[in-house]
User: Fold this.
Amino acid sequence: MSAVLDFPVKPEARPYLEALGRTNSGEPEWLSRERQRALSRFAELGFPSRRSENWRYLDLQPLQREPLLPAKARRDVPVPAELQMDGACARLILIDGHCHGAVFRDLPQGVWLASMRQAIEERHDLARAASCGEVDAEHPFDALNAAYFADGFVLDIAPGVVLGQPIQIVHFASARGAVHTRNVIRLGEGSRTTILETYAGEGRYWRNDVVAVRLGARAELARAVLVEEAGEAVHLAELDATLETEARFSGFALLIGGGTVRHEANVSMTGEGAQCRLDGAFVVGGNEEANIVTNVDHQVPHGETREMIKGVAAGRAHGAFQGKIIVREHAQKVDAHQLSRNLILGPRAVIDTKPELEIYADDVKCSHGASVGELDETALFYLRSRGIPDAEARHMLVEGFLREPVEEIADPALREHLLRRLARRLERLEG
Assistant:
């Protein structure tokens, strides 16, 4: 595919299209058609602006003023050992968007874990599960990703297969430029696994990541995301999950690094009795900004959703949570609850929170709540009165506040790994 600009192009999209054009020799015809269709769609949509409700809290002007374009991937880049979780039964490492290594320990039959590039060559059914379909105006970077992704990972678990230990995927960026990765997680009926995706890097780069999750009937997936990007990095990630009958999805996101970070989770509850839990926490300081955006769509009866998002902002940082739960007209007996709680450390930090319910059924139990406040002065006084220095007392209260959603993670090794990374980040957080 080459970027022939024979269709309407938004001005801000033009430098990306002109610079990103390339030929994907040897790719199947269906993929070339997908790429060209996605490219046309991005050219039409361009960048979202703050006038868009979904993007009102994020500043993308730097990407328009100084485009971050794909750079040549580096090889043999050491990934910090501290990012690798102990106890994983498999680990896949992607460097600058390309799969560069894998370690497998005792994976049972029925588990297929490989790069997206390998899936394109060997498993067209899995590769095509990542198709972007019809991209709406709120998701232009999904189209850009579909047009230019270089690689990614694919996890396919056969019906009835249960993994007792987590799988870890490490995404590490080392080259200045853009990294587009496209990924698929598919679980067959009754299968179960836990996965940790870690995003980190060094330098100035833009990561644009898309993950498609498909859960069969009674399948269970616990997915945790650790975003620990470099200070100048832009991180935009989108999850698209579909849950069939009685499937269970637990999604957790810990955002503790990156200049501009946006984590979006879109969940379609298409099977009766499906359950979704979305928890998360963000920590921002300096001039950082982080957004967590969730959309859960209950399309059938007897679904359940629980959301708990916590945020902490210090310095001149800006954090935001936008969450929407939709209950369709025929989706009776849905039980959905959403909670956003936030701490402001200092007079210049800002956190915006917007939980939202859109309900068209009448036999449901739904609620939402939000709060933004400062540290409890009574609790601070209590700790100081027992000889604990002010800085340490503040640190203890902030860490205690943020631990709650992390401790909902069932796997002990994963939970302890995330708590260690969180504690390390809080040590560097200005008060």
In short: The mean pLDDT is 91.
